[in-house]
Amino acid sequence: MTNALTKPASAIGGRAEPVVFERELTVLANDPVNGEYMRLVLEAPRGLLELCRAGQFFNLLCPALGGETPYLRRPMSIYGFYPDKGELHFLYKVTGAGTRALARLREGDALNVMGPLGQGFRIDDDWQRLVLVARGVGLATLAPLALEANRLGRHLTAICSARHPDVLMSIDYFRELGATIVPVTDTEGTSSIAHLETLIEEMIAGEGVDAFYTCGSNRLLTLLQTIGKRHGIPGEIALEQQMACGLGMCHCCVRPFRKGQKTVQLRVCREGPVFDIQEAMPW
Predict the structure, then answer these.
(1) Per-residue pLDDT tens for 239-252?
(2) Which of 12, 155, 223, 231 gets the highest tally of CB atoms within 10 A of its CB?
(3) Residue 88: how many CA atoms within 13 Å on its side-chain side?
(4) pLDDT category, 7, cuts 50, 70, 90?
(5) SS3 call for 202
(6) Could you give phi then psi for residue 215, rounded to 5 degrees?
(7) Beta bridge partners of 132
(8) Higher model confidence: residue 199 or residue 139?
(9) Rounded to two decimals, what is the model's pTM?
(10) H or E stretch at 63
(11) d(CA 216, CA 139)
C-alpha cells in the first residue's frame, strides 16, 4: 500500500514542506544490538529513502502481537537510510506495549509506517568542524548526521555518553564514517557536565568548532546553549516529545520556544523535531 499524504514543493517558514507516505514495509531484521536496544531493518523503495533527511522520523503503527494492543502510532527517529541497499533502520528500546510488540516482529512480517516526517538537520556551507554530543538513544537520532557529514567531507567529533561502556551506541558506526570518537560514561566518572564543558572548551581552543548538534537531554541542551553563547557557535537540537498524529493536526506535541524577545508555541512534529539550539527551552 502506498498513500501520499502531503504535496511536495511548498515552503513554510523558509523550510521545505516534506512529502509524507504511508506504506507497508517488509521486515528484513529485528535484532538486539546490546543489552538494552534493538535494531529494526525494513525493506524500503529507493524513492521513499531519497526523501529522508537526518533528524526526521517515522510514525510506526505497532502491531497487535503477543497480547499487546498499542493504540497510537509510535514516533521513531531514523537511525539509518540507505537508498542503494533499499534499507530503512530504526533503533529502539523496549519500554512499553508498542515497543514490546515491535520486538516480536520477524523477518518477512509487514509493518505500516508513515513518513518521513518533520524537519531535519542542516549543515551550512561554512560549518566545517562539527561537534555532536548525545547520550543513550539520542545517539540513534544523530547517527544519520554522521553519514551526511562524511558525504560532505566535514570533520565530525562525536562525544558519546552512556551509563557504562557496554551500552555505548553507534561508536563503531561513527568511527567507520571518519568521526573522532570521545566516549564518556557514568561509571568512569567522565560524563559529568563539568567534564564535558572542559572537553568542549579544549576543542574550541584547539582546532575550533563551527556548530553543535545534540538530542533530547536538558542537561546537554543547557550546556551547549551556554558554550554557544559564550563563543558565538550555532547549533541544532532534535527534541523528543510525546506525539499522536505526527502530522501537526492534533497539537499534542506543542512546547515553548524563544523567538527573539518572545516565547512562541511550536509543534515538535511539524516545525521540528530539529530546532535552533538557542531557541529551544528546557522541558
Answers:
(1) 988 898 999 999 99
(2) 223
(3) 31
(4) very low
(5) helix
(6) -150, 125
(7) 158, 213
(8) 199
(9) 0.88
(10) none
(11) 10
* Residue 17 confidence (pLDDT): 58
Measured distance CA(11)–CA(106) in Å, rounded? 39
Q: E-strand spans in 63-218?
A: 74-77, 80-82, 87-93, 110-117, 129-135, 155-162, 180-185, 211-215
The whole-angstrom separation of Cα 42 and Cα 193 is: 37
Architecture of the domain whose range is 239-283: Ribbon (2.10)
Domains of the chain, residue spans: 21-117, 129-235, 239-283
pLDDT on residue 9: 36
pLDDT for the residue numbered 13: 39
Q: What is the 3-state secondary structure (H, E, C) of 84-128?
A: CCCEEEEEEECCCHHHHHHCCCCCCCEEEEEEEECECCCCCCCCC
Share of the chain above pLDDT 70, in %: 93
Q: How far apart are CA 128 and CA 105, in angstroms?
A: 40
Residue for grid cell 543489552:
35
Query: For residue 280, what are the CA distances in angstroms to 33, 54, 177, 183, 236?
Result: 31, 19, 29, 25, 9
User: For the residues 2-28, what does the mean pLDDT come to?
Assistant: 62
Helix (H, G, I), strand (E, B) or coil at 58: strand
Note the CATH number of domain 21-117: 2.40.30.10
Determine the pLDDT at residue 181.
Answer: 93
The domain made up of 129-235 is a member of CATH 3.40.50.80? yes
How far apart are the C-alpha atoms of 271 and 56, rounded to whole Å?
11
